[in-house]
Amino acid sequence: MLNLLAVGSVALDSVKTPFGQVTEVLGGSATYFSTAASYFTRVGLVAVVGEDFPKEHIAFLKSRPIDLEGLEVGRGQTFRWCGEYGYHLNEARTLETHLNVFQKFNPQLPNTYKEAPVVFLANIDPELQLGVLEQTRSPDLVALDTMNFWIDGKRDALLKVLGRVHIVIINEGEARQLVQEVNLVKVAREILKLGPKVLIIKRGEYGALLFTQEAIFSAPAYPLEAVFDPTGAGDSFAGGFMGHLARTKDFSMNNLRQAVIFGSVMASYCVEAFSLERFRNLHPDEVQERYRAFKQLTHFDEM
């Protein structure tokens, strides 16, 4: 049985940053999430690609502890996204989006996935997220990501799914938009009223904040000399975060804090190269080494 189920997009990305550009490389929210999470546990990936999806990308996913029974091959072309970043790398400017087979994506879980104890609903239509939850059998932990498009266009469905999940992982702009507040502490209080027990606000180069009703935890981003491409960093963060929770099956506050750091570790490796290239040669020992470096980064002794 799988420890972790991920539902989202697999795409071909074309990206330009001040440090280079790539064309039609492997991307998509579920791809980044599953790859990062696979350093901690086995992941079941539910997504759709077209008949044109390169075989070498399938081979890469299969080289990781990622189960592809839920990866559908639809008639048509794979979802494509084209974007660029300026020197302020926190936000991409979308140049082109071609949904292709993703436009008619209707996730169907293989029977072996329905018992997964931990579920991650990546950034897709909240009605599809609800449909996935209807197919699962009482998971112990459910988390979701969303975006401004769904907050504006599918608010009622999004509110419904928010009432059925345990964890929400979104960036600070989306968090503010969701509840029409500016102060992040007030934002968190209002989002937690909607049903989730835990809120993670991703803040890019400024790190991440974890909120529960009882506590707040702040983690910095790892200081890097070279950042090439921030595409997928948020999904890689979610993969590290959820992967650690799925591996340990411990949802205590202390372990949630550790999960935030592991998420930050995976995000930091993601941005060191375009697409998923950094993960192709990333060794698990490096993940542990950077986790220890994160601990040292924020450690201090009381006087």
How would you characterize the overall build of this protein?
Helices cover about 35% and strands about 20% of the residues. It is α/β, with parallel strands linked by helices. It has one domain (about 5-300): 3-Layer(aba) Sandwich (UDP-N-acetylmuramoyl-L-alanine:D-glutamate ligase). The strands form two sheets. Strands 1, 4, 5, 6, 9, 10, 11, 12, 13 and 14 form a ten-stranded mixed beta sheet that branches. It has a four-stranded mixed beta sheet with strand order 3-2-7-8. Strand 7 (about 80-85) and strand 8 (about 95-100) form a beta hairpin. Helix 6 packs across helix 7. The longest helix is centred in the last third of the chain and has 18 residues, at about 255-270. It is globular, with a radius of gyration of 18 Å.
